[in-house]
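::Encoded backbone::
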Amino acid sequence: MFKVFALVALFATGSIASAISSAVVVKKGVAPFDGTTLGVVQPVGRCGGVGTPLQLRISGCEGYCELQPGSIYNCEEDFMPSMAAPSLILKIEICMSAGFCMIILETELANSSVQPGFIYTAKYSIVPNDILSGQTVEFKAYISASDTMRLEICVSAFVDILFGVGR
């Protein structure tokens, strides 16, 4: 059980000279959320998709993640889509050790038009629930094209949910 805040922004970096001016995207490098440090999560697995996953970052993590229940964790996921899409769908899923998985968020992202040849960053926040205290869960983030439902990116990482509730 995680609470998830809606996507905050979708950013783009051009790997080619043209710019995207019709979508609400900005060049990559804008300060993350509230200035917290987002560490690179390792190891991260690929769980599907035809696009290219580049990096997953979560605030308070560097390498393997240990999350405090009740605390807000900002997440950033860099990726390159394989094809153009008018908008994207973000889905977050949590899988417990017994194999039970639960979708905790599935939403179409406003103003998320993408083009191949650009690097995008999806931003969202999660809050682990204390019901998961003491467990290792698999965190999965899926990004799909809204028009065709083509899975562009799926990344997964195992995280430990610590005992107790954060502030």
Q: What stands out?
A: The chain is about 0% helix and 50% strand. Residues 2-161 form a domain with the Immunoglobulin-like fold (CATH 2.60.40.770). The two ends are 17 Å apart (CA to CA).
